[in-house]
C-alpha cells in the first residue's frame, strides 16, 4: 500500500520550484528534529535558499524592545534556534573541493515517500575540472528514535576514478533575512559551542538552553557506487538527564525498517482516502504527513505554528494546537494528543505566575510561547486573546470524552481546568443589563484579530462558559472546590451572549455590529492581507474579520443553535471575513457543510487542502501552515462527515458531489472505527468485539457505548 | 513692585532640597534656550544632579524598536538633545584646579527673582589647600534676545591673594539615567561638533538638526571682588539662515535692564494677585513665570510638556499646548499664542502626510512630536488620541474669538480647520441607532488614557462637532468648500452623544458604563499611578479615569448643559477618576467652581497650584509640569472667576472663602481689562476709551463689544 503513487510527492508535480519553498515542503522531521531540505553542497556559499535544522524547544531569548513600555508587558522574545544544515557536506576529489569552488549541480530527482517518511534526492554534479558524477541522498528523521536524523549519501556514475572524500562541517554561513513582516522571525542568535568528548554541547547564550549533538563528521572515502550513512544524534539537554543519548548502535537498514514500520502504523490509524481526485488525495496525505512530523511527544514540547519546517512565528506554540491540531490527534493518535496536553500541564506554573503578575487569580496561559512564558510583544493581538485558557480546557475535555482516558485529568488535567476557571471568575465581571445580572468577559480579543480589546466576545464567552461547566463537573467528580463550584456554575448560567434583534444575528462582541462595514469594494486585491496595508486602528474600527470567530464558536457548539441561526450567522459573518488568517477557511468549510452548502464547503476545503502545495499564501518559505493542515482534516471529518461530539460521535453525510467516497479511521474510547461515506451513505465498521453501537438518527448516525 | 517679596523664590522656602529638584525649579529659559540650575563647579564630576541645557526644537531621532511591528506605526523617536551645562566653569588657583580635585562647596544663597527673570546664587568654596572664597552667579536667558544665555560670575571674600582663573569647558560627562518609566526619556545622543571660526556647529547625527553656539570660554583672571559675564549665543540653524546670530555686542548691564523691562511688561499683562496667602501667591507667580519661560515664539517651535526644564516626555509637544496653555496666552499674551498656533500651521504638511499614510483624507496632527511627525510608540495612548486635531482647531477658534485677529485664520488657520474637518468626515462614520442616523467617531482614545480604542468618546465627538461647525463657518466666510460645508454641518448636527437614561449621566463612551468599577477600596495608595502597577488590559476593562474626560468637555462647552446635568456628571466621574495625570485636578477645580462647590474647587486648586513647588507627583526632577501650571491659571480664571466665552467674556464669582480678593488682567479684542473679585463682588476696569461694555447677567457679567 505505501508504494502507492499517491504516497509519493515528487518535485515535478509542484507548481513552482524555488529553493526556499522546496526546502520547506520537503523538510523531514519527527517532532523533535526538523531538517529543511537545504542544498547538500552549498554549505558555505550563500544561495537562494534558507537551509537549517530546528530542535523542538531549543530557543534563544532576548529582551523585547518596546517603543514605549508598560507594566505587565511580556519581557523576552523567544526564538527557535536555527542550526546548521546537518545534511550539508563538503566533497573533495583530488585537489578540488566543493566548498572552495563553485561545483555545478543539477537536481535530477527529488521525491518524498510519505508512506515511509523518507526523502530521496539525486544531483548531477560537475566539478570545475569537469569531473562528473551523481550524488544521491536518502534522508529521514527517525520516528522511533527521535534523537536521530539520518542521511545516506551515494556516489555513482563517476567519469573519473579518484575516490570522493565526503565530510561534514558544522561551521556554516547563514543567509540573513531582514523583514518587517510581523509574522516572521527576524533574529539570529550565535550559539556557543563546546566539545565534550565525542559529542558537542551547543548553548543558546541568553536562554541558557542547550542541545547535545553527536555525529561522525568524516571524512569518508567513497568510490563509484559506494554509500555512507551519516547519523546525527541531537537532543535537548535536560537538567535531570545525565546521558543525552541512547548509546545503542543501530545500522542504517534497521533504521529504515523501523521508519517504514512507524509510518505504516501511522497511516493505518490516520489515513484518509478520497476517490476521484489524485492531486487532492496526495494533498491530504501531505497534510497528515506534516501533522505527524511536527508534534512534540515528550510532554515538554508542543507543536509550533510552522512545525519544525521554518522560522515563521519564531517557533512559538499558540492556541492552534488545541483548536486546529488536537482534534486530529485525539481522534487518530490519542497518545500524541496526551503528550501535547501534558505540555500544557507542564507550563501551568508559568501560567500561574502570569496571572499573578496581572493581579489575577488562577492561571493564564501565554498566548505565544515556547517555555510557557508569555512572549507576545503586541498584547492586543497577544495576551488579550485570553480565550487560549478556555481553548486548552476544551482540548482536555475533548480528549477525555473521546479517549475515555481519565488518567490525564486525574493528574495535571484537573488543575488546568480549575485554575483557568479561577482566572475567569476573577477576570470576568457581572454587569446589569435590562434588569438582569449577566456575567461577561471584558477587554479581550477573540480569535478575530481584526477586532481588539472588546467586551463580550461571543467566542470567548462561550468557551469560558464551557470552561466553567467542565470545572464544575470535575469539582464534583473529585470532591474539590465546593464553594468555587457554585460560583462557576452561577457565572456559566449567567453568561452573556449578545444578540442583534433587528438583524437576528449573534453579536461577535458588544460593539462589532456598530462599526462601519469595511469598504471591500474600494479595497484592491493587493491590499490583502489588510494587516500589512492598514494601521490596526483603521482595521479595528470596521466590521471586518481576519478569520472565523463567531462561526468557530458555532462549529464547536453546533448543537446549541438552531439551523436557521447557524445559517444567518454564517451568511452575515462570511461577508465581512477576509480569511487573512490561514485558520479561517477550514472553519468556514466545516460550517458550510453543516448548513448544507456543500458546494461552498468544497471550495473552501480545496483552498485549505492544498494551501502549502500551491503556496496559496505565498509564504511557505517561512514554513508550513500547520494549523491549516489540521484545519483540512476538520473540513473533511467535522465538515463532510459532520463529526460532532454529542454524547457519542455524531456523524452526518455532507459529502460534496465532487468527492465519490471518503474513508477514514477514528479512534473512540480505545476502539478503532472505519468510516466510509459515499453519496447518500455512511458506513461504519466497528471492531468485531466492539463495545460500541451505531445509532441511526434524524440526520445521520451516532456511535456510542452499548 | 517687582521687588515685592512674593516675586522672590528662595531655596530656603522649599520643602526639600535635592539637587535634581532644585535644578528643575530654578531652571531659567526664554522659550528658545532652557538652562537647568546645574552645579557650577561639577562640570566633570558625576554628582547627584542632572545638569543640562535644552534648545527648543533641537532633537535627535532614532528608529522606534517595536516588539512586533504593524503597518502605519510611527517610525522614529525624537528626543530633545541635552547640551552640556553651559554655566559650569573650571577654576584654577595656583596649581589647584576645580575639575581635577574635589573642591568643597556650600550653597549659601539661591534666589530666583521672578520679577526680573534673574537667578542669583552664592557658593562658599574651599579648595583642598584650604583657600576659601565666595563664588556668586547671576544668570538668565534673555527674553529680548532669545539666542542669549547670560551668566555673570563674581569672586569675593578670598582668603588668598592669587588671582582665580575662570574658564568654561563644553566637553562634559553626563550622568545616565536608566528607567522603565514610560514618561521619561531614556536616550542619550552623542552630538557631532565642528568648529567654524568663532562659533561651533553641533549636529544631532540622526535627525541632522543643528545648532550654532558662540561663547568666550576663557580663561579670565579674576581677583577678589571682580566679576566676569559669560554670554552664550545659541540658535537652531535654519536652512534659510545665513547668519545665525545677531552680531550686535551688548554689555551685561544693558542685558539686565532689558530683562527687567521684559518681565515688567509680562507681569503687567499676566500677573494674578491673590490676597490672604503668601505661599499661594508666590506659587501662582512661579507657575506664570514658567509659562513665560517655556513657550516657543518663532512659529517653528512650541511648548514642550516639561518646558525647557528637563528631559521628561522627550521634549515633545502634545495637546497640552492648546487645551492647557493656550488659554493663558490668548487672554494675556496673544502674540505668543499666535506663534504657538503658527507652529501648527507650519506642521500641516506632516499632518497631511500622516492622514494619507493612514488612508484618510485631510490632515491628522501627531499626538506627540517635535518636528510634526508622529512619534508616539504606543498608538492606543498616542495616535488614537485623534482629538488633538479638534483641540488644535479649538485653539484657533478661541484665539480668533478673544483676540479678534482674523489674520491668522486668513492665512494658515483656515487650512488647519478645513483639513481636520475633512479628516473627521472620512474617519468618522454614520451608524443607525433607534431608527436614526448618527455620526460618530469610532476606535479612538479620548483624553482619559485609562480607556482606549473606544467608540463615541464623548469629549472627542463634542470637539469634532465644534470642529465641523467652525469649518462650516469659515467655509462660508471665505466662500470655500460649499459641498463639504453641507456635509460638515450635517455630520455635526447628527453627532452622537451617549446618555445613560437609568443613571441620567453622560456616557464617556459606548462601553465605559458597562465596565466594572475599579476596585478602589482594594487598591493600596502605593499602587498609584495605576499605569505603573497594572497591565493596560486590566485598567482598560474597568471604569476608571486617569483624568478629566467628559468633565473636560463640559468645561469647554458648559453652556450646552443644564446645571443639574453638569453636577450629576461631575459627581459620577469624580468618583472613578484617579487624577494619575497632572492634567486632571485643574479641570475638576474649574468644574467644582462652576457647579458651586467652591470648597472642593479650592482643594483641587491648591493641589495644582503648588504641584511642582511641593513636588506632589515626585517627578519634578524630570522637569516642570507645564500643562498643570496652565491648569492652575484655568482653575483661577475659568474656575474662581468663571470665565467662559459666550458671545463675549462671561464671568461669575466663584471665589472660595479662603481667598479674599483675586485680581488679574485679561486681553480681549486688543483691549486690556482689569478684573477684581472679592467675596460677592466682581469689578471690571475697562480702558478709558474702551469699545467694550460690561453687561450684568443672571449669574455674573458679560463683557462684550458695544
UniProtKB/TrEMBL annotation, chains A, B:
<dbReference type="InterPro" id="IPR005196">
    <property type="entry name" value="Glyco_hydro_65_N"/>
</dbReference>
<dbReference type="Pfam" id="PF03636">
    <property type="entry name" value="Glyco_hydro_65N"/>
</dbReference>
<dbReference type="InterPro" id="IPR037018">
    <property type="entry name" value="GH65_N"/>
</dbReference>
<dbReference type="InterPro" id="IPR008928">
    <property type="entry name" value="6-hairpin_glycosidase_sf"/>
</dbReference>
<dbReference type="InterPro" id="IPR012341">
    <property type="entry name" value="6hp_glycosidase-like_sf"/>
</dbReference>
<keyword id="KW-0328">Glycosyltransferase</keyword>
<feature type="domain" description="Glycoside hydrolase family 65 central catalytic">
    <location>
        <begin position="285"/>
        <end position="633"/>
    </location>
</feature>
<feature type="active site" description="Proton donor">
    <location>
        <position position="449"/>
    </location>
</feature>
<dbReference type="GO" id="GO:0005975">
    <property type="term" value="P:carbohydrate metabolic process"/>
</dbReference>
<comment type="similarity">
    <text>Belongs to the glycosyl hydrolase 65 family.</text>
</comment>
<dbReference type="Pfam" id="PF03632">
    <property type="entry name" value="Glyco_hydro_65m"/>
</dbReference>
<dbReference type="InterPro" id="IPR005195">
    <property type="entry name" value="Glyco_hydro_65_M"/>
</dbReference>
<keyword id="KW-0808">Transferase</keyword>
<dbReference type="InterPro" id="IPR011013">
    <property type="entry name" value="Gal_mutarotase_sf_dom"/>
</dbReference>
<feature type="binding site">
    <location>
        <begin position="319"/>
        <end position="320"/>
    </location>
    <ligand>
        <name>substrate</name>
    </ligand>
</feature>
<dbReference type="InterPro" id="IPR017045">
    <property type="entry name" value="Malt_Pase/Glycosyl_Hdrlase"/>
</dbReference>
<dbReference type="GO" id="GO:0030246">
    <property type="term" value="F:carbohydrate binding"/>
</dbReference>
<dbReference type="GO" id="GO:0004553">
    <property type="term" value="F:hydrolase activity, hydrolyzing O-glycosyl compounds"/>
</dbReference>
<protein>
    <recommendedName>
        <fullName>Maltose phosphorylase</fullName>
    </recommendedName>
</protein>
<feature type="binding site">
    <location>
        <begin position="546"/>
        <end position="547"/>
    </location>
    <ligand>
        <name>substrate</name>
    </ligand>
</feature>
<feature type="domain" description="Glycoside hydrolase family 65 N-terminal">
    <location>
        <begin position="16"/>
        <end position="193"/>
    </location>
</feature>
<dbReference type="GO" id="GO:0016757">
    <property type="term" value="F:glycosyltransferase activity"/>
</dbReference>
Amino acid at each position: 500500500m505505501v508504494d502507492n503513487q499517491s504516497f509519493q510527492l515528487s518535485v515535478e508535480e509542484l507548481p513552482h520550484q524555488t529553493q526556499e519553498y522546496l526546502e520547506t515542503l520537503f523538510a523531514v522531521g519527527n517532532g523533535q528534529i526538523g531538517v529543511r531540505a537545504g542544498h547538500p553542497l552549498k554549505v558555505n556559499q550563500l544561495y537562494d535558499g534558507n537551509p537549517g535544522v530546528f530542535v523542538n524547544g531549543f530557543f534563544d531569548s532576548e529582551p523585547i524592545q518596546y517603543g514605549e513600555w508598560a507594566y505587565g508587558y511580556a519581557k523576552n522574545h523567544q526564538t527557535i534556534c536555527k542550526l546548521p544544515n546537518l545534511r550539508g557536506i563538503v566533497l573533495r576529489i583530488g585537489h578540488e573541493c566543493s566548498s572552495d569552488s563553485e561545483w555545478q549541480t543539477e537536481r535530477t530527482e527529488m521525491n518524498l515517500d510519505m508512506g515511509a517518511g523518507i526523502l530521496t534526492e539525486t544531483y548531477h554534479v560537475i566539478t570545475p575540472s569537469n569531473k562528473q558524477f551523481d550524488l544521491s541522498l536518502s534522508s529521514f528523521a527517525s520516528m522511533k528514535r527521535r534523537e536521530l536524523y539520518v542521511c545516506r549519501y551515494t556516489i555513482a556514475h563517476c567519469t573519473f576514478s579518484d575516490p570522493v572524500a565526503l565530510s561534514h562541517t558544522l561551521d556554516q554561513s547563514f543567509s540573513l533575512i531582514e523583514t518587517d513582516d510581523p509574522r516572521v522571525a527576524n533574529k539570529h542568535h550565535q550559539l556557543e559551542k563546546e566539545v565534550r568528548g565525542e559529542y558537542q554541547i551547543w548553548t543558546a547564550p541568553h536562554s541558557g538552553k542547550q542541545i547535545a549533538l553527536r555525529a561522525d563528521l568524516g571524512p569518508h572515502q567513497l568510490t563509484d557506487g559506494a554509500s555512507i550513512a551519516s547519523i546525527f544524534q541531537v537532543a535537548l539537554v535536560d537538567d535531570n538527564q545525565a546521558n543525552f543519548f541512547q548509546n545503542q548502535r543501530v545500522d542504517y537498514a534497521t533504521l529504515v525498517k523501523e521508519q517504514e514500520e512507524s509510518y505504516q502504523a501511522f497511516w493505518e490509524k490516520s489515513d484518509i482516502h478520497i476517490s476521484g481526485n489524485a492531486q487532492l488525495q496526495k494533498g491530504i496525505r501531505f497534510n497528515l504527513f506534516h501533522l505527524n512530523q511536527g508534534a512534540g511527544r515528550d510532554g515538554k514540547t508542543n507543536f509550533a505554528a510552522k512545525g519544525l519546517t521554518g522560522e515563521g512565528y519564531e517557533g512559538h506554540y499558540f492556541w492552534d494546537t488545541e483548536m486546529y491540531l488536537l482534534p486530529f490527534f485525539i481522534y487518530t493518535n490519542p497518545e500524541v494528543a496526551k503528550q501535547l496536553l501534558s505540555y500544557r500541564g507542564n507550563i501551568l506554573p508559568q501560567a500561574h505566575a502570569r496571572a499573578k503578575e496581572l493581579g489575577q487569580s488562577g492561571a493564564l496561559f501565554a498566548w505565544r510561547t515556547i517555555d510557557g512564558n508569555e512572549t507576545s510583544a503586541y498584547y492586543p493581538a497577544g495576551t488579550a486573546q485570553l480565550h487560549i485558557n478556555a481553548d486548552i480546557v476544551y482540548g482536555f475535555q475533548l480528549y477525555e470524552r473521546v479517549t475515555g482516558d481519565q488518567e490525564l485529568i486525574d493528574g495535571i488535567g484537573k488543575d488546568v481546568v480549575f485554575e483557568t476557571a479561577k482566572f475567569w471568575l476573577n477576570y470576568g465581571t457581572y454587569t446589569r443589563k435590562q434588569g438582569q445580572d449577566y456575567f461577561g468577559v471584558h477587554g479581550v480579543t477573540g480569535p478575530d484579530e481584526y477586532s481588539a480589546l472588546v467586551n463580550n466576545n461571543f467566542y470567548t464567552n462561550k468557551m469560558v462558559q464551557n470552561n466553567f461547566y467542565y470545572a464544575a463537573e470535575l469539582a464534583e467528580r473529585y470532591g474539590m472546590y465546593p464553594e468555587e463550584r457554585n460560583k462557576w456554575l452561577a457565572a456559566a448560567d449567567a453568561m452573556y451572549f449578545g444578540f442583534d434583534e433587528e438583524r437576528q444575528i449573534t453579536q461577535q462582541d458588544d460593539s462589532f455590529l456598530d462599526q462601519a462595514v469595511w469598504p471591500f469594494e474600494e479595497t484592491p486585491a493587493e491590499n490583502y492581507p489588510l494587516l500589512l496595508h492598514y494601521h490596526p486602528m483603521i482595521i479595528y474600527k470596521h466590521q471586518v474579520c481576519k478569520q472565523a470567530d463567531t462561526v468557530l464558536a458555532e462549529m464547536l457548539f453546533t448543537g446549541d443553535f438552531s439551523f436557521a441561526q447557524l445559517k444567518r450567522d454564517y451568511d452575515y459573518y462570511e461577508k465581512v471575513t477576509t480569511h487573512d488568517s490561514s485558520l479561517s477557511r477550514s472553519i468556514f468549510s466545516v460550517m458550510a457543510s453543516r448548513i448544507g452548502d456543500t458546494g461552498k464547503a468544497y471550495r473552501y476545503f480545496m483552498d485549505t487542502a492544498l494551501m502549502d502545495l500551491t503556496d496559496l499564501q505565498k509564504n511557505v518559505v517561512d514554513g508550513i501552515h500547520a494549523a491549516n493542515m489540521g484545519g483540512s482534516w476538520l473540513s473533511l471529518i467535522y465538515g463532510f462527515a459532520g463529526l460532532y461530539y454529542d454524547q457519542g460521535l455524531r456523524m452526518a453525510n455532507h459529502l460534496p458531489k465532487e468527492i465519490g467516497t471518503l474513508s477514514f479511521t477514528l479512534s473512540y474510547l480505545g476502539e478503532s472505527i472505519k468510516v466510509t461515506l459515499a453519496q447518500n451513505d455512511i458506513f461504519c465498521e466497528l471492531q468485531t468485539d466492539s463495545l460500541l453501537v451505531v445509532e441511526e438518527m434524524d440526520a445521520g448516525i451516532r456511535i456510542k457505548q452499548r
